[in-house]
Here is the input.
Amino acid sequence: MAQVEDRARKSAAGINDDIGEEMRLRLFRSQFLLREAEQRAFDLFLQNLVKGTSHLSLGQEAVAAGFACAMQPGDLSFCTYRGHAHTLARGVPVEQVLGELMQRDNGLMRGKGGSMHLTSAEHGVMGSYAIIGAHLPIACGAAWRAQYKGAKDVSVCFFGDGTTNIGAFHEALNFAAVWKLPVIFVCENNLYMEYTPISSVTAVPQPAADRASAYGLERILIDGNDADVVYRTAQTAYAKARAGQGPSLIECLTYRHSGHSRADPATYRPKGELEKWKERDPVVLYRERLKQFGVDEKAIVGIETDVRKVVDAATEACKASPMPPLDILTTDVYADGGFAWRN
Here is the structure.
């Protein structure tokens, strides 16, 4: 039996081994970190330590991890209000993200931005945007800058399925295609635009992929719960953009395990739908993938243990951090750093 299992592992390792064990471990660590950090954010909300609304990505970790792991330093991420995972995937410390959600002085923006406005230019995270579709034209602008200056960085714009029915989506796609901009548009189709099934209000079955041809782009529809598939698709799109061959529009099929926001019990979902999608839980799926490729269980447990320690330490640091001082209330609001011009 041991010999049969060993042959199976070697066979699995010979399939799709372009990714390699080192990257697969990185992909798993990223997904597990996103899962633990997001779950902790929810737990802290239940303790009344996270104020205001927040939108979790539980169940959608493979998209953020796959694209981030395929990025190069200098590439830029543009996120929606559901941006915790993408921010963490680019290397922003858990403490800074949780601190921002908890409105603490150790937060990413010292507690002034909150859940929906995470930004870290240092890590290539060029903002989370609460206005649906607002960041697509901005991503085009960043890509146009790279093209004009002859730089090789690529802008990646993440958005939900509901954004595909917003005018900015079509304007940005057209602009990017005409100018062959180095930008990648990534639709995280979790089937619901807030509380409404995207299929109920869209003229085509796949809201992003089925519209690609209108802009001369390839139809790309992938399993957004499989980090290997996401990673490979991202690599191809990055290479295309860096070669000056223009944008890509990628639709990732995925599913959020929680409601739209912390206040949403998601009772509008059909009975059994969530349970069916949890059979394709990206974290569970990838953990099994590592074992299929011969990764030792001890190595997997080691990653999980280390990540939990990181999240626990970050949580305690945030609880101990003070609220931001009042003297920064009017800074970072206008270009001059204050509000004097209004007077």
In short: The chain has a mean pLDDT of 92.
